[in-house]
Structure formats: structure tokens, C-alpha cells
Design brief:
This protein has seven helices and six strands. It is α/β, with parallel strands linked by helices. A six-stranded mixed sheet has the order 1-2-3-4-5-6, sandwiched between helices. Strand 4 and strand 5 form a beta hairpin.
Length: 195
Amino acid sequence: FHPGAMQHSYLNRVGDAEDIRIGIVAPDGKRAMIQHSRDFVACGIPHIFDPGQGMTLFNGEELRTFIDEARYIIVNDYEFQLLKEKSGMSGDEIANQVEAMIVTRGAEGSILRTREAETEIVPVKPDDIQDPTGCGDAFRSGLIYGLLNDLDLITCSRIGSVMGAIKVAVQGPQNHNPTKDEIQDRFCEAYGYRY
């Protein structure tokens, strides 16, 4: 793996863009991830910290800073263990510093943790299992859609689960192309209401 252009992505400044309502700090060059998290805070833009495979780039102090700066955290169950170990914080300590932390668990669904409660988000049964590549990104797209539309965090997480189920049934990371109605129908079938 070679980061290529990611080595220079820190040159992209959040403040240079307009009309940003929510941001995400996802795997990128180390310098860029640190810079963009700080930029979002400086611009007053809430953001998601999604360290993914970039987790190993950071020490405990750096991870604690990311946690402090983020409004939301999304990690898979393995990344969650690493985040706790490297930051020296418990799951409750991390969850209490953000509005929400979501721990995805693949076919087992996800856990939504807030300061007030922990909610299990049951998985959506996929039509087929072809390729898990891109399921995490599909989940995040559903979550972000919900946040941008001012939906509650449980509904946002459930939309993410629907998107992951749709994605896993298709070969390739971004070859799925559901309509808005198809997503709504899958959501309603799985959770019993429309958002």
C-alpha cells in the first residue's frame, strides 16, 4: 500500500469549502487526519471520527485528541478494542465524550452508544452475500444521510444497516445502486416504520 496523493491531502482545508453541515475524518494521511479534525472544530462543523485502518498511525494522546474533537465516532469491533487499548480509555469514557459512538459488528449488527443509553441495532438480512468490501462505507453513507436529514440516531444507524445489507449482496465496493424507494421499503420491512 502506498498513500500516493494522501501524502498531500493535508493541503485541503475545511475552511476553503462552503456549506458544510457535517464532516468525516476517515483513513487518510496522518497529517491530514489531524489537520482536518482541527479544521472542523475551528469552523464549528460537527464531524465523525472514523479511524479505520488509520488507527495504527496514532498514539494514545493523538487518539484522545480525536475523541475530544469529534461529535461522533464509528469503529468496527476490532477497531473499538484498539481504540480502547491505545487511548487508555474505557468504552464508557469514550462514549461519554461524544454525542454517539457506533461499533459495527458485521452480520451481528451494530451497537449505538450515547451518554444516556446503549442500543443494539439489529442487522438487516441481505438478499445474498457476495462481497463485504465497501459495507462499512455503505453503512456510513446511510448514517450520514440520516444525520443530514435530522433523523434520530437510532434511525440513522438503521439506515446504515440497510445500506450495508444492500451492499454486501453485490460484487464490488460501489456497484450497488438502489433507489430511494427501495431503501425505504427495505427499512420498513426490517424495522416496521418509515423514516
